[in-house]
């Protein structure tokens, strides 16, 4: 009953003889935020804003005073901040969510520390080394905190590390790289849904997987990596069919909007690869207008059905 939504209550009210007073009381108890909810929200909001602005101030502080600071002062300041923020998470007076937010700020400072170290000693390392070190040194914090924003930061670091590694070290075909990114983010998406992670995390990771799938399909259409494309394309098509079926079954606007828009981009690229003369460009323009209109129309109809 904790996850009951406003639509659920209104649907029950339409199908039963609930009075207006009972409906209002149920909405006030289960849906509408009270004074304590607003207080909790504002506390977390100001905490997030405070940590965010503090991190931005630290970065700009180093950028402005870089030439005037001794190298040990540069590293020491960041290390002390990392230690101080991490130590705050052990205070019993701070609630768990605030501790997780503070630890996320500390994880961002780890990246600042690596950046400062690299600038001082000019290690000459590839860009992927920076993100790899950052990813490795926050892994324990991510696993133990089990905090969705921290996991989101971790996914960004993992994706960035893999992209830079493939581009700077391995020289793998780009379609192979996008395939790995697509499958990796897709696996995290499925796991997050199974563990009932927050919706924003699920949708962000799903959108990342969809983005890599779309870029991979475009790359496969315009490039000559046919041996990889023959495997990548059927996998993406099967995934899209499953996502559309799931979206229809659950009436999820996320699946029924993201997947069709991705398909519109892929089909437009395919048509453009066939020919780029004025008639084909006109055909692509008409196709985009009609398909986008149909997608938006279906989404509006779905929203009306859910609200009725």
From TrEMBL:
<dbReference type="InterPro" id="IPR018677">
    <property type="entry name" value="DUF2157"/>
</dbReference>
<protein>
    <submittedName>
        <fullName>DUF2157 domain-containing protein</fullName>
    </submittedName>
</protein>
<keyword id="KW-1133">Transmembrane helix</keyword>
<feature type="transmembrane region" description="Helical">
    <location>
        <begin position="228"/>
        <end position="247"/>
    </location>
</feature>
<keyword id="KW-0472">Membrane</keyword>
<dbReference type="Pfam" id="PF09925">
    <property type="entry name" value="DUF2157"/>
</dbReference>
<feature type="transmembrane region" description="Helical">
    <location>
        <begin position="254"/>
        <end position="274"/>
    </location>
</feature>
<keyword id="KW-0812">Transmembrane</keyword>
<feature type="transmembrane region" description="Helical">
    <location>
        <begin position="280"/>
        <end position="300"/>
    </location>
</feature>
<feature type="transmembrane region" description="Helical">
    <location>
        <begin position="103"/>
        <end position="121"/>
    </location>
</feature>
<feature type="transmembrane region" description="Helical">
    <location>
        <begin position="176"/>
        <end position="192"/>
    </location>
</feature>
<feature type="transmembrane region" description="Helical">
    <location>
        <begin position="41"/>
        <end position="66"/>
    </location>
</feature>
<feature type="transmembrane region" description="Helical">
    <location>
        <begin position="199"/>
        <end position="222"/>
    </location>
</feature>
<feature type="transmembrane region" description="Helical">
    <location>
        <begin position="72"/>
        <end position="91"/>
    </location>
</feature>
<feature type="domain" description="DUF2157">
    <location>
        <begin position="24"/>
        <end position="151"/>
    </location>
</feature>
């Amino acid at each position: 009953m904790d996850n009951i939504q406003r639509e659920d209550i209104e649907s029950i009210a339409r199908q039963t003889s609930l009075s207006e007073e009972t409906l209002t009381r149920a909405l006030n108890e289960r849906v509408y935020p009270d004074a304590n909810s607003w207080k909790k929200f504002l506390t977390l909001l100001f905490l997030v804003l405070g940590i965010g602005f503090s991190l931005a101030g630290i970065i700009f502080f180093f950028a402005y005073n870089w030439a005037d600071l001794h190298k040990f002062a540069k590293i020491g300041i960041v290390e002390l901040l990392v230690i101080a923020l991490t130590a705050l998470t052990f205070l019993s007076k701070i609630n768990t969510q605030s501790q997780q937010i503070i630890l996320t700020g500390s994880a961002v400072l780890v990246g600042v520390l690596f950046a400062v170290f690299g600038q001082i000693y000019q290690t000459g390392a590839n860009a992927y080394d920076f993100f790899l070190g950052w990813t490795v040194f926050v892994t324990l914090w991510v696993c133990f905190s089990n905090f969705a924003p921290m996991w989101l930061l971790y996914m960004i670091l993992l994706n960035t590390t893999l992209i830079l590694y493939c581009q700077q070290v391995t020289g793998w075909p780009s379609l192979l790289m996008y395939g790995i990114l697509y499958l990796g983010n897709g696996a995290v998406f499925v796991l997050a849904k199974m563990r009932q992670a927050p919706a924003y995390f699920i949708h962000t990771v799903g959108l990342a997987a969809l983005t890599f799938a779309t870029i991979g399909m475009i790359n496969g259409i315009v490039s000559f990596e046919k041996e990889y494309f023959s495997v990548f394309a059927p996998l993406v098509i099967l995934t899209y069919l499953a996502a559309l079926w799931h979206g229809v079954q659950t009436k999820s606007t996320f699946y029924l909007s993201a997947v069709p828009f991705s398909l519109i981009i892929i089909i437009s690229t395919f048509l453009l690869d066939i020919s780029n003369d004025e008639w084909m460009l006109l055909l692509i323009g008409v196709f985009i207008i009609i398909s986008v209109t149909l997608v938006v129309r279906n989404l509006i109809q779905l929203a009306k059905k859910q609200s009725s």
